Amino acid sequence: MERRVGANETRLDDIDRNGTRGVAVLAVQVQALTESIGGIKADFVKHEERHMQDQQAARSDRKWAIGIILAMMAAIGGLYPFMSAVMHR
To answer: Which has fewest Cβ within 10 Å: 2, 57, 63, 68?
Structure first.
């Protein structure tokens, strides 16, 4: 135990004498992590925007489909009396 305490004391003295080794590396890693999180956040915002665009496109597609179906029904409905008259001759 005394040997371990003595070794730690030596390491602490070295840190005091030579500065805090490893802290600069840790600071660089934290900075890189912060930049990565910023990139992830930007990607998430882009994803949300794309999701909203997809929803709007789907809504527009549904409107077009409903319009086409209604137009077809109106066309067939308009021809129905004519077809009925021709068939009953």
So the answer is: 2
Query: Which token pair is 34?
Result: 């912060």
pLDDT tens string 36-86: 888 888 888 999 999 999 999 999 999 999 999 999 988 888 887 777 788
47: containing domain: 2-87
**And the tokens for 63?**
């409107």
What is the value of pTM for the model shown? 0.45
Number of domains in the chain: 1
d(CA 89, CA 82): 11
Cα angle: 40, vertex 42, 47; to 5 degrees: 90
State phi, psi for 21 to the nearest 5 degrees: -70, 140
